[in-house]
Amino acid sequence: MTLDTASEQQTQPLPHWESAPEDLPAAVREIKAALRNRIEASGRTVAEVFGVVEQRVAERVAEIKADRERSETVWPVIEYADIADGTVTAEALDKLRRRGCLVVRGHFDHQRARDWDADIVDYVEKNEFFENYRGPGDDFFGSVGSKPEIYPIYWSKAQMEARQSDRMATVQAFLNSQWQHESDGVQWFDPNRDSLYPDRIRRRPPGADSGGLGAHSDPGTLDLWMTEGYQRAFRHLFDGTVEDYDPWDAAHRTSGPQYPGTTMCSAFRTFQGWTALSDMDHDQGVLHTIPIPEAMAYLMLRPLLDDVPEDDMCGVTTNQVFPASEKWHSILIEAMSCIPDVKAGDSVWWHADMIHSVAPVTDQKGWGNVMYIPAAPWCPRNEEYAKNVRDAFLTGSSPTDFPEEHYEREWVDRFREDQLNQTGRRGLGLD
User: Fold this and answer.
1) Among positive and negative, which fits the CA dihedral 378, 428, 321, 255?
2) 326-333 vs 46-69: helix axis angle to the nearest 10?
3) What are the distances in angstroms from CA 234 to CA 139, 248, 251, 424?
4) CA 192 vs CA 78, 108, 141, 149, 174: distances in Å
5) CA distances from 298 to 50, 133, 294, 331 (A)
6) 3-state secondary structure of 67
7) Which residue of 92, 105, 340, 418 has the smallest Cβ count within 10 Å?
8) This prediction's pTM
9) What is the side-by-side strand order in the sheet with 356-358?
10) Per-residue pLDDT of the chain in tens (431 residues, 90 and over written 9)
11) CA 232 to CA 251: how far, in whole Å?
12) Distance between CA 224 and CA 207 in Å, rounded?
């Protein structure tokens, strides 16, 4: 390859599809060839670039294994009081950024969380949810064997009180601040304003058997390689500057689009999260993650190696979750780590790109109850989705990211607009 040819390939736009291509195998072959050419035009081979990422990941895996051998907690744990008081130690912050996940102890008062759990039960029973439940609305959570385990409920008083609370806003702002949210004269998101992304509830009773969820990541699917915005977001992986890749850089992450599907998330989340409504032990079908933020670079580059079929992205396709597997990602799977024991009122958070799973459980001991509340800061992408969220909130409908079940439209005691505080109104774009 001549220098002129290499320079041309470095500056030529990559092929991109802003909506899902009709011929997926052909598009996969085309984008893989273009990405390989882009990398090689930098003077490095795909194998060399992947080797850089693999080495970074291997170092993190070794750290995690060493922590386990010393019986140390893999997951960072920080007290809510330290976040609120600004007294989180430098050591704790470093661990949070290295691991990309966090348990916030005492995020809410233990009894407050238990009361919210009881309020949810009262809300669904009063509105005869169980008598009218039609079964899982999507294939993904249907796999856990829910009867139901995942409640398609969004607008209960408990959920909305937690979403718009000062304590939630404090933690979300702290987590958002771990990201680089401003660069090149652009503020990619406002770290101090959340968009109140509505999600569901999980209630798993004692004695339950659950199939769990396999290892996967949620930021997108083929759009991560095939849309222009994401190509810019992951530019360092493909232009020969892989050492500069930063999983905490929000540049070009907050505009979209994302290919539609039953598992998509229209919002940009810095962290996914849930708030515990019951006490849960670490061996009772709980969340596991691969606590390595850099693993996203591994996932993105792995399909470009020679052992992967030309029309395959290591199993990633549209309208399904982004899988992680022993076949393609064995070194990552070695680092899979469960959360520590949590109490009602604690919250659990993991970087939006992070590979995670839910362990299966047989004859569960105690309740396993959570409400899913992420950190989804205000940005162009989230402002656009907020329009749909407002309509769903005002009508009691299921938000558009979720199956069209709409159980709550006629329910009594649904959270109403006059109950919103300033944080809630700003999060829905009403102020």
Assistant:
1) negative
2) 50
3) 30, 12, 9, 33
4) 20, 19, 31, 33, 8
5) 7, 41, 7, 10
6) helix
7) 418
8) 0.94
9) 322-323, 213-217, 356-358, 287-289, 337-338
10) 554 454 455 567 899 999 999 999 999 999 999 999 999 999 999 999 999 999 999 999 999 999 999 999 999 999 999 999 999 999 999 999 999 999 999 999 999 999 999 999 999 999 999 999 988 765 544 443 446 899 999 999 999 999 999 999 999 999 999 999 999 899 999 999 999 999 999 999 999 999 999 999 999 999 999 999 999 999 999 999 999 999 999 999 998 778 987 778 999 999 999 999 999 999 999 999 999 999 999 999 999 999 999 999 999 999 899 999 999 999 999 999 999 999 999 999 999 999 999 999 999 999 999 999 999 999 999 999 999 999 999 999 999 999 999 999 999 999 999 999 999 999 999 99
11) 8
12) 40
Helix (H), strand (E), coil (C) string for 275-317? EECCCECCCCCCEEECCCCCHHHHHHHHHHCCCCCCCCCCCCC
Residue with tokens 């092929």: 15
Instruction: Report how many domains make up the chain.
Output: 1
Angle between helices 24-41 and 46-69 (to 10 degrees): 90
Is residue 216 within 8 Å of 295, Cβ to Cβ? no
CATH at 208: 2.60.120.330
Single-letter code of the amino acid located at 283:
D
What does R_g of the chain's alpha carbons equal in angstroms? 22
Residue owning tokens 């007290």 = 79
Measured over the CA atoms of residue 33, residue 34, residue 35 and residue 37, the dihedral's sign is: positive
Half-sphere exposure of 404 (CA within 13 A, CB side): 2
159: CB partners within 8 A, 6+ apart: 120, 153, 198, 201, 371, 373, 415
Contact between 268 and 382 under an 8 Å Cβ cutoff? The reply is yes
Range of the domain at 289: 3-427
